[in-house]
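Anyone opening a protein record will find just a pair of labelled lines. The record below illustrates this layout.
***
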Amino acid sequence: MSYFRPDPEGIVVGGDLARPEPTDDPDPLGTPRINVPTEAASMRGQIEAAAHRYPALLNSEVLKVIRGPEAFGADGECILGQSGVDGLTLATAGSGHGVAFAGGIGRAIAHVVLTNSSDTDISCYSLSRFDGENLAPADVIKRAESEYVNYLTIRPWFVDSAAQSAGERHA
C-alpha cells in the first residue's frame, strides 16, 4: 500500500514495507527513525506503487525518510477491552485499520470504561482470545510477521472469491 500528498518541500510518499522488520527494542519510539542510511532504497516500492497514479514520481529523489513502528496483535488484529488489570482498558495494536476505525473504537472503549460493557460487540478483539496460546516472544513475532504480510497483500476480488469458495481464510 502507498499514498502520497503535496508538501511545501516536495511530495510526501508513504506506505508499508512488504516484509516486516520486527524489533525487540523496549522503546521503539525513543530514537527518531529519520534518514536511516538504507531507508531510501526501501522506499522504491512505495514510490513505484504511487507512480501508477503520479508517473513523475519515478524520476524523483528521496530527500528524507521517516519510519515508525507498526503495531499488530499476534493474529494481526487489534486488542480492545478489559485487560484483566483493574482500571486498565485496552485499545492497542490497531495499526492502520485502528486509525481508520478510531471513531468507533473510541466510542466502544468509552462505553467499556464508563459501564464495564459496550453497546458494540468487541469481544472478538478481547485480550482473552489469546488465553492458552503460546505467547513466547519468538512465536508471537513469527505469527505477527505472517499476519502482517497477509494484511498487506492486496488480491483481486476473483482470487478472494475463489479462496472463499475453497474454504480458505480471507486475509
Remarks:
- The beta strands are 2-7, 10-15, 33-34, 66-67, 79-82, 89-92.
